[in-house]
Batch of 2 targets.
Target 1
Amino acid sequence: MKQVNVGLLGLGNVGKGTYTILTKHADKISGMSGSQIDVKKILVSDVNKKRDIDVPKEILTTDAESILCDPDIDVIVELIGGIDTAYFYIKQAILRGKHVVTANKAVIATHGPELMDLAKKNRVLLLHEASVAGGIPIITAMLKPLAGNEFTEIIGIVNGTTNYILTQMTENNMEYDTALRLAQEKGFAEADPTSDVEGEDAAYKLCILMLIAFGVYVDPKDIPCEGITKIAKADIDFASQFGYKLKLLAGAKNTNGRLKYYVSPTLVAESHPLASVNNEFNALFVKGDAVGELMFYGKGAGPMPTGSAVVGDIISVAKCIGTDLLDVTPAQPYPVTEDDLELIGESKSMFYINFLVGDEPGSLGKVSTAFGNHGISIQSVMQRSQGEAAVPVIYILHETKRKQLDEALKEITDNNFVQEITSILRVLS
Ligand SMILES: NC(=O)c1ccc[n+]([C@@H]2O[C@H](COP(=O)([O-])OP(=O)(O)OC[C@H]3O[C@@H](n4cnc5c(N)ncnc54)[C@H](OP(=O)(O)O)[C@@H]3O)[C@@H](O)[C@H]2O)c1
């Protein structure tokens, strides 16, 4: 049987999950891949660290070169995280003719096109199924069984931390800070949750999804991105009275060659399949011109779900070793250029606006007229009378451009028709 040696970079959450699956299901994996797959060395930052996994101590090392230069190692599995060091190791591995598997969304979103190109030139595979939505095999699905489709839309709940927080705010009546603390206690949020709660993590994943689905690279920094830190419990409650759930969505839509994309807290109608995706779960809603609508659902993080995707990639690599790679290399992204697709960032959307309005006659009429002046039509209005001097008034607006909305809001605030704009949220239409 063919021997395939793996150099694992990292033995943290995902490294441990990957090692566990490779050892637990060794017989099945060798049957599936036609290879004996062994982890030969593991890079860690501290070999003496106490670990809750049984790994022979002699295969641990802090010397990356001893792995990257080892001629017996066929596959480098990068699971250290971060950008610069991981990018350097992946590049070195490719240049030395080694196949690479990674779960690192930050590296793929930042350096993906360059690394994929380099891998192609060096005739090695660079697989990264675990970089988007952990255990959900969305990348392989788009590259293989769905490769015959032209994709028109992808909408995802791709960050388990924020979905957990929003679910707790919705179902268990928690304020944002309490829900975040609970997520940290349960291991669903990191000590520094900034990348998750500000939407950066979701933007990395959307960047990768757009590269695979539409063949275009949009720098994650250029994706209009809003996180969930300013979400108030009151808005979640008001939205539910209109029949909506609040989710952090990462979306991209190709309408007649114009690609629109965003990461944003968004109200989703309770009847939409994404509305029932709760807690740490992830989901992706995909539309292809041939297949129609598809929904993928599962665990987007955690040692074992993420390890499942990493091991799947290792098996794909093992199958290729010793064969003519080009026959079995997953299809490259459809080579669309910026001339084929017009990248225009944030799309037209329906909006939810929460105003604080003084209890004076005619206020609502003036606000509604201001919207009308800017060509914005109103789907519904709700006034929450609390017997106070100022009351919340919620508008759900039909599709409009954000620029048009901002102009209408300027007219409303300049003329003091309302006391305050409490919040503005997108509504999925
Ligand atoms: N956690 C998830 O559920 C999840 C899901 C999807 C994707 N990912 C991605 O998977 C990757 C790994 O995440 P993780 O949660 O497993 O991270 P982690 O728990 O922090 O583990 C990182 C591992 O890498 C080692 N390491 C870090 N920097 C190193 C360096 N410069 N030199 C040598 N060793 C180094 C650490 O060594 P020590 O053990 O000695 O400290 C540790 O074993 C990241 O790219 C992440 O975005 C994670």
Note: The chain has a mean pLDDT of 94.
Target 2
Amino acid sequence: MQRLLFFLAVTTIFIVLTFVVRFLMRQANKKIWQKRWLDKAAFHYPYLFLLSLVLMILSASLARQSLMMKVSITLGFIFLLLSITLLLSFLAVFAFYFGFKLWPKINKNTRPFSSERRRALKVTASVAPILLLGTSVRGFAGAFSKVQIPVISFHFKNLPTAFENFRILHLSDLHLGYYFNLKELENLIGELMRQNYDLVLITGDCADNVNQLADALHLIDQIPTRLPKFFSLGNHEYFRDFPRTLRILEKSNIQLLRNEAVTLVHNSSKMRLIGIDDPVYMGREITSFLAKFLRKATNGNEVESFNLLMSHRPQALDLAPNFGVDLVLAGHTHGGQVGFNGRSVFENWGLHKYLWGKYQKGNSQLYTSAGVGHWFPFRLGCPPEAPVIKLKQG
Ligand SMILES: [Fe+2]
């Protein structure tokens, strides 16, 4: 019910948005460009969006995860991106247009509109839509860009000497079945195999198409490591045939940590690895759910000299100092999918903390991965990634 209401609300917003865009586009065209084709395109714009929406609903009810579903979701997102882009563009065009018209009234010395000035107005008014459309196309192309493999070092005063230069391959948010498939995973693993890892950790949202999960886990299991590989759950594991996902995980060599901890021994030194569940839909209550999971996971096991936490949600950092956690590895946010200089541009908007990269709270540190995959085909300045976490003393 909650999901249906959310879907209806989002759909209504999109439909209203397309009609607003149509209105602005036609008004701007009437006042500035006077092109018949632009007027026609604007007229049909909301109906094309509605068509892609009908396709999306039809394909969802006929066969989930089919090619038709993928195509219609892509079409729907293209329309959403286009609508937002055009809305911003035409608002900019109007601001510019009225500014241009009002200026002679404010500044009496300015001459009225000459034909050159009118031409300049038309050209300048075209810049905003072209620039924003170009940015959207770049963002859409970025969703299909190569997965980066950055090596990220973290320093800890309490790190046992045995763990110096310990390397963890952190895989998160593969979202297999949307815009990342088994063939691409195979290629990525081929590239990842060029480096050595001590540990491989998967922090949730692995497969949206559960049919691909067993093969994906088998592929990941081919990566040679000194220690076993571990998996913690994300919200999308719950969205896609959860009982079957659990059965596949149980049969796999990759160990699922569901609100539990294990002790890893490396060169005679110990590390505690904790894996917590995902609170699925929770909004503001996320932290209290994560605290409950952490209490359960840490109950009855000893705090080691180094403690590592796998949590799909990066908000676990807020709790990490109270549970003696030194490092949290998380995902879920996809880095907000728009970044600049290694940080999400949505970082300080108050919607979500810890969107992408390194963070610290007390003596606890966090890395939020931008994820290997995504379900929303847009990435700008925030490429898909499979980070290698390197532990260092100091
Ligand atoms: Fe997620």
Note: The chain has a mean pLDDT of 87.
